[in-house]
Automatic annotation (TrEMBL):
Stored InterPro entries: DinB/YfiT-like, Maleyloyr_isom, MDMPI_C-term_domain, MDMPI_metal-binding, SCP2_sterol-bd_dom_sf
Annotated Mycothiol-dependent maleylpyruvate isomerase metal-binding domain residues: 15-153
Source organism of this protein record: Streptomyces coffeae
Statement: the UniProt record of this protein carries the keyword Isomerase: yes
Name listed for the protein in its UniProt record: Maleylpyruvate isomerase family mycothiol-dependent enzyme
Length: 274
């Protein structure tokens, strides 16, 4: 246990997901590492490389000195270029090399987290040069690793853990972005309300309300006569919010009631991960 229990939820969720990733990829044969995932341009190997690389940076390891090829269509900005270095440098690694490095990285990172003595509000620098509190950084790692666990599960046709500790952190992380999506990005009118009714392994209902000044808030109370109601399953919500699919690709798993124009605007801005 860490000195600060407020960090333990994120550490436990990270541990659960990183162990699940190890279990998923350890039995894979070489060609299975090349399976495509829903992350643009990334294979199973690339997703695992990303996870390894970011955890190594959290450990304080130096970043690889590596020049990216110029023909990577999915590298569109500085953040994606930053993230791609840890991925591209491992594209020539074999399956045993990948699983060995993952195992070693998990051992080192787990030891670091077990011995964490810093206060939750300690400001730390995370990959990409962003500064945030240690508590936020650990929640972000738990979120990222769980989302990539799900990327791997879909690519390998091994569904599961949609209600795991990491799923709960992912739900709260994604829901926190909804007020901005509805009120600012989609431009919902003042005094409007949008309901998100999510079913499946993780069930929840949330209402985003836009006040007279155009500011959005979110709560779990029921709205009478909402402007829009979006009903969908949790996995579809995840895939949309993380930019893995476009709304038109999952239309049969999505029910829209109310203002269609506003619903389309919300769905157009639904992807909130970088």
């Amino acid at each position: 246990m860490t000195v600060h229990p407020s960090l333990q939820t994120s550490i436990d969720a990270w541990t659960h997901s990183i162990d699940a990733i190890s279990e998923l990829v350890n039995p894979l044969v070489e060609n299975e590492w090349n399976r495509r995932t829903e992350c643009p341009g990334w294979s199973v190997r690339d997703v695992v490389s990303h996870v390894i690389g970011i955890e190594c940076e959290m450990l304080g390891d130096p970043r690889p000195i590596h020049t990216l090829p110029r023909d990577l269509f999915h590298v569109t900005n500085e953040l994606s270029r930053y993230m791609e270095v840890q991925v591209d440098v491992r594209r020539c690694h074999t399956a045993p090399e990948m699983t060995s490095e993952l195992e070693y990285t998990v051992i080192r990172r787990s030891r670091q987290l077990r011995n964490e003595k810093r206060s939750p509000d300690t400001v730390v620098r995370v990959p990409g040069g962003i500064e945030m509190s240690l508590e936020a950084a650990l929640a972000r790692r738990a979120f990222d690793v769980w989302v990539h666990e799900q990327d791997l599960r879909r690519a390998l046709n091994k569904p599961g853990n949609l209600d795991s500790p990491g799923a709960l952190i992912a739900r709260d992380t994604l829901l926190s972005a909804l007020p901005k999506v509805v009120a600012k990005d989609a431009g919902a009118a003042p005094h409007s309300a949008v309901v998100f009714d999510v079913h499946g392994p993780l069930e929840f209902m949330r209402t985003v309300r836009v006040d007279a000044d155009g500011k959005g808030t979110i709560d779990g109370s029921v709205s009478l006569g909402p402007t829009v109601t979006l009903t969908l399953d949790w996995e579809t919500y995840l895939r949309l919010a993380c930019g893995r699919v476009r709304p038109e690709a999952v239309g049969e798993r999505l029910k829209v009631e109310g203002d269609q124009q506003l619903a389309e605007a919300i769905l157009d801005h639904f992807a909130v991960t970088p």
